[in-house]
Every structure is written in C-alpha cells, then in structure tokens.
Amino acid sequence: AGVKLPCSLSDLPTPALIVDEDVVIRNCEAMISKAKAAGVKLRPHMKTHKTIEIGKMQVREEAAGIMASTLPEVKLFAESGFKDITYGVPVAAAKLKPLCEIARASGAQINVMVDNPQQVEWAAELFATQSKGEGGSKSIVLGAFMKIDSGYHRAGVDIFKDRPAAIDLARALHNSSALTFLGVYSHSGHSYNARTREAVVKINDDECEAAAAFAKELEAAGIPCPTISVGSTPTCGAAAAFPGVTGSTLATTSSSTGSSLEQGRARTATLLCRVIGHYNDHFLCDAGSLAMSKDSAPQDGGFGTVQGRPDLLLAAVSQESGKIVATGTGSADGNLKVGAKRARPPEADLPLGSLVRILPNHSCLTAACHPLYYILRGDKIVDVWRPCRGF
C-alpha cells in the first residue's frame, strides 16, 4: 500500500477510499437485527465491497446466503467457505459451465437468475453433456431463482404484462432436472430515485405485495415457491416490515444513494482527497471521475457532499479532479436541491492542501474505482483490504 501502518489520514496518498471499520460493523449488525425482527432471511450482496472481510461481517447463521455479481466474486466467496451463493444477474450460456465448476470444486450451493425459457434449455443441455462426461463426474444441479420485474423495468419477467408467460417459466423451472427452483426474486432498483422516505416505503410495500401475490398464484397452480425475495438498499433501510416475504436482499453495507434520505445513517465509505486549487466560483480537489465515478444523484445533481458539510457539494468531475462548490442550501438533513445557486466556498473553510472526505453518491461505483481500501479504526488507518476484481 506504500504506507506504514498504523498511520494517520494525512499520511495517505490521495485520492484514497476510506472504510470505517466501526461503521461497517454497526451497519451489518443493524441490518441483521432488522431482518430478524421482520421475520425474514437476509441475503446480503457482496458486489459493492467484494471483500471476504466485510462478507464475514454481513453473514451470520440467520443469513439465507449471499449475492454476488461476477464470476470472480462467486469463486472467491465459494473458496472462502461461503456455502450458498447466488450469481445475481440473468445467467448467460457461457457462465453456466464456470459456475458448475465452482460448485463442484468448492461444494458450495451455487444459484442463478433465470428470466427466459432459453436459460432453462441451456442448463438442460449442459446437464446432459456433463452426464455423458468421462471419469464419472456427477452432473451439477444449480439452484435457480426466477427473476421477476415488479416495477424497476431493468430485468426479469414482467409479472403484470406477461403473467401467463411468467407462470409457464416457473413451471419449466419446477420441472427441470438441471435446475432446482428456489423461488422468485425481485429488485426494487427504482427506489433509488425516490425523494422521500414515504415514497421508498411505498415502493417496498408494492414490491412485497406483487411478489407475494405472484408466489401465491404459483402455489395455486401446483408450483411450490419456497422463497420470495425482494429488496434494495433504500427499501431495506427505510422499511420496517416486508409483508408476505421470506427473504430480503441488501445491496450494500453502506448507505449509498447520497440522498437526503440517507443522511441520518452512517456511511461506511468516504473518499479522501486534497484541495488543490482555488478559483472564482469553485475549489478543485484531486478526486475526479476515475476515483469517484460519474454517477450523479437525482436529488442534487452532484457526485457527493463533503463529510460534515452538507452545504459543500462535489458538483462536477473530470478525469482526475473535481469541483467543490457551496450550495448555500445546506441543512441538518443535507437536502440539496437540483439547480440551487452555487458559489465558491469561503477560502478559510478549505485552504490549499486541506484534506476533505467526500460522501460518494454511489458507493458501489466509487469502490470499484479503487484497488485498495484503507481501513479506519478510530482516527488511525490500521489495515488495507484488497477487493477482488474482474468479470
């Protein structure tokens, strides 16, 4: 990492991703407790941090398993002893064999997402090929969630417009010899665009109702649906209950939307950077799009706020630098408005060389920009964690 540990924040090169270990632990324990109180099984996602260290904090005996988004993630967590891993995007034909190989080598239960009948056919073809293979290797049966679209409109079978097709796909999964039908899975990603907590809770309740009603219809058609899984970071954070649901998926251990809805919750990750310029209408810092990503927040149009200063916004980024402006609209809840008047911050606030920590709008994409995470315990950097990379 190029630094001697333990060290101070001022000893680090910038930009650097800082992960507050105490906050990670508190956030993980809070979500585990919430799931237990709500009577659902938690299936936490590894895609933001991609580290064994945080994965172990997220998972307790109450967990239903974990989610992963890439083959390297699936392989890493399977080799590290995680026993139930779901590959969290609709599965491509080319991914089935590697997933079976990971399952065979590790003994882990590997699950896939299915939202098209062709995926069932691909699995059957691979299963038949494995059955004819030499050496007596047993064919691997993968678990399968049927991915349903309950409002996000990114992926999944539309259970409102294509109900008969959705039931037919569930029946094909139920009858498959190559896949074990585990239930339905929905992701309420549209909750990230909500402007109020009440709107997020409404999205959660609608998602739960739609998924539970569809599962009930499957049961009536003679298709057992053991698991009803829903969720997103905003809904898991805002809602207290998940009616009719057996499993909830949390996208990350941190509050990653960057919106006013999340200001009351501690953020796991911050981006440490230095002020490198003073200009007429902004300050410049050494964190640009390659350190932050270019995913802006719908609530304020920016890329993150300065920790402890909700009136200071990272308003624009180029490749290696970013503009910090004063919005003049900072408040206790950090509710910055799109189009609010922006100006140069007072020079005394951020002298040249000052260290600032930006609360990223989207922790998932910001974390993906960094090969190292610097681990903060109290006021000292005590460790460096290395996330897995690749697709």
**SS content category:** alpha/beta
Gap between N and C termini: 24 Å
Total strands: the figure is 18
Q: What would you report as the Rg, rounded to the nearest angstrom?
A: 22 Å
Average pLDDT for all residues: 88
Spans where pLDDT lies below 50 across 5 or more residues: 250-264, 330-339
Biggest sheet layout: 9 strands, parallel
**What count of helical segments does DSSP give?**
10
Strand content: 15-25%
Estimate the global geometry from the Cα principal axes. Answer: globular
- Fraction of residues in H or I helices: 25-40%
H/E element order: EHEHEHEHEHEEHEHEHEEEHEEEEHEE
What do these coordinates show?
By secondary structure, the chain is α/β, with parallel strands linked by helices. It has helices spanning 21-38, 52-58, 71-79, 93-106, 117-131, 163-175, 197-220, 233-238, 289-292, 363-367; strands at 16-20, 41-42, 66-68, 84-90, 109-114, 142-149, 157-158, 179-185, 227-230, 247-248, 269-278, 283-285, 304-306, 309-317, 322-326, 355-360, 373-377, 380-385. Strands 2, 3, 4, 5, 6, 7, 8, 9 and 10 form a nine-stranded parallel sheet that branches. Helix 3 links the parallel strand 3 and strand 4. Helix 3 (71-79) packs parallel to helix 4. The radius of gyration is 22 Å and the shape is globular.
